Amino acid sequence: MPIPGPGQSLPITTIATEFGGTVPHEISEYYRGGALVPNSPGTATIPTSGTIAYSDFYNTSATTRVAIPLVISASTDNYNVYTSRGPTYNPGNSDITVTINPGVTVGSSSTPAYAFSVPSEFSPADTITVINNGLIQGKGGAGGRGTGSSSTSCAGAVGGNAIFVNRPTVITNNGTVAAGGGGGGGGGANFVPRPAKSGGPRYALGGGGGGGASAPPSAGGPLGPGPFPGTSATVGGPGTSPAGGTGGTGGTSLPGVAIGGAGGAGGGRGAAGTAGTNRTYAPNPALGLGGAGGAAGNYIVGNPFVTWPVTGTRQGGVA
């Protein structure tokens, strides 16, 4: 079992338990490459000669470390490094390198789920390195509902997060890491009063908001219930990557007097969605208001744990 890290008590007996030797123990017996301590990646901090200190032995191990290369060669969703670690994993003695190939997208199936996760279940003595040559993309927020005859428009949903890290990790980002875009807000309905002899008042629905940039695609916003007579409004377009979906068009009454508000466009990678267009609806002013655009997610949650030798393209918030 590896010797504990800094902050733990480290008597000579702990070193002897890991590397062997006979009583009485002396720290000078434990130079790397000597009779007791192998010259291996697990003992790299122990000197081969000269000054030697107890602190040189933190996180070292007599066991030969295991290199575990993990390659993501095809697009996938919700990748968890710990559950993908494989059968050769040896707790405390493993050096795991995850490589995402060029042209590969690691996405998310839902906004609450991370596209790529490095959880805390690993031993503290393990090392985790990520080499991203592709795209790690959070799920985009869904577009907001357009206004119906009895329902107000909805705000676009918040975009999802791309990466979650909860232990020390090195990420070399040669590609792109992007949060899901926020969904576009639904458009407001329109009411135009007219006298009965002119056919009475005219009404028009608001369009649905576009989905935020996403992999896999996010949903565009639907329409509210109760279509008014005339040309129908349209739903919002789905969000893909790198672009968010287009906002749906507002409905038009016959003979084109009232025009509903357009839905807002979904945000691109790491960007907020656009608000839906406001219209005037005198009988119920709330029905005329477009929904707000949804905020973008974070490209990473747990950034204090991460070292970035290469930052590459990073889009969205950070936490």
What does this entry look like structurally?
The longest helix has 8 residues, at 12-19. The protein is mainly β and 319 residues long. Among the domains are: 12-57, no CATH class; 66-142 and 155-179 and 297-318, no CATH class. 3% of the residues lie in helices and 20% in strands. It has a 5-stranded parallel sheet, with no helix packed on it. The chain is built from 1 helix and 17 strands. The mean pLDDT is 94.
Give a short synopsis of this structure.
With about 325 residues, the protein is mostly beta strands. The chain is built from 1 helix and 17 strands. The relative contact order is 0.15.
Question: Mind sketching the topology for me?
Answer:
Layout: H1 12-19, E1 66-72, E2 76-77, E3 79-80, E4 94-100, E5 105-107, E6 116-118, E7 127-132, E8 135-137, E9 163-165, E10 169-173, E11 176-178, E12 190-192, E13 202-204, E14 298-301, E15 306-310, E16 313-315, E17 317-318
